[in-house]
Amino acid sequence: MPKIPVKLVEWNEIVEWSWGLARKIEESNYVPDVIIAIARGGYVPARLLCDFLGVENLISIQSQHWTEAAKKGERAIIKFEYVINLENARALLIDDIIDTGESVILARDYILNTWKPKELRIAALQWISPVAKIKPDYYYMEVKEWIWFQYPWTRLEDVTQFIKRIIEANYNEKKKSTWTLDEIVREFEEWYGIQVDNRYFNSAVNILVKKGIIKKINNELIYLLGKA
Ligand code: AMP
């Protein structure tokens, strides 16, 4: 059984969802002059919406809350604050998913206070309605039960963090510190219920080796904190 409910999202689904979101915005007759992507999750949907809505102006703001996959960071912050004048513009703020809603609320408030657009509306591919503190003006999909969406643009990052979590939990619970790659793959599929291409596992392991979390000896992977 997966320990965290995860849905693997494919690129073609992103295109379909973004297309559907664009149609909803169009049907409302809102014509944005500028699209603002919330970095980093909003980048791909925002770029697709520029195409599907014929919007030329694309800028971004980095509002960060979740520092690790499926684990909430302490609070949302605006990174790299800068000021521009949007007084004459109708703006559309875009993110991939609104979960707690804290990132989008922070970005919205910052933009309204400092960039001062004529109008600002919010759009997201997905909206987790039972937990979100805000309802976006536009969303493609309402999610009624919390799940981690493994988007294609965070695949390596998520796989790396998920493997790290598996290794740490097994050490804490069973003092297991030596792994083969096959064991990791099996446990990963059991925990998360998704399958990813082998190159993600190989690269994730290399990243964990570089970070000094595991060591590779022949075909064995050794959890270094476990040895300490
Ligand atoms: P939040 O501030 O909780 O609304 O989420 C901020 C960002 O974290 C989102 O824009 C996503 O990039 C990422 N995120 C949060 N929850 C999820 C989830 N359930 N699945 C995938 N990504 C998520």
Write the layout of secondary structure elements.
Elements lengths: L5 E3 L2 H17 L6 E6 L3 H11 L3 E8 L12 E3 L10 E9 L3 H14 L3 E10 L9 E6 L4 E3 L4 H20 L3 E2 L1 H12 L5 H13 L3 E4 L2 E4 H4 L1
Parallel strand pairs: 1-8, 2-3, 2-5, 5-6, 6-7
Antiparallel strand pairs: 3-4, 9-11, 10-11
Helix pairs in contact: 1-2, 4-5, 4-6
Adenosine monophosphate (AMP) binds next to strand 5, helix 3 and strand 8.
Summarize the helix and strand pattern as letters.
EHEHEEEHEEEHEHHEEH
CATH class descriptor of the largest domain? Alpha Beta
Number of helices: 7
Question: Percentage of helical residues?
Answer: 25-40%
| Average residue pLDDT | 94
The CATH topology of the largest domain is what? Answer: Rossmann fold
Structure explained in plain terms:
This protein folds into two domains: 6-150, Rossmann fold; 154-223, Orthogonal Bundle (Arc Repressor Mutant, subunit A), CATH 1.10.10.10. It is 40% helix and 25% strand. It has helices at residues 11-27, 43-53, 102-115, 155-174, 181-192, 198-210, 224-227; strands spanning 6-8, 34-39, 57-64, 77-79, 90-98, 119-128, 138-143, 148-150, 178-179, 214-217, 220-223. α1 (11-27) crosses α2 (43-53), α4 (155-174) crosses α5 (181-192) and α4 packs across α6 (198-210). The chain is elongated, with a radius of gyration of 20 Å. The chain binds adenosine monophosphate. Adenosine monophosphate (AMP) binds next to β5, α3 and β8.
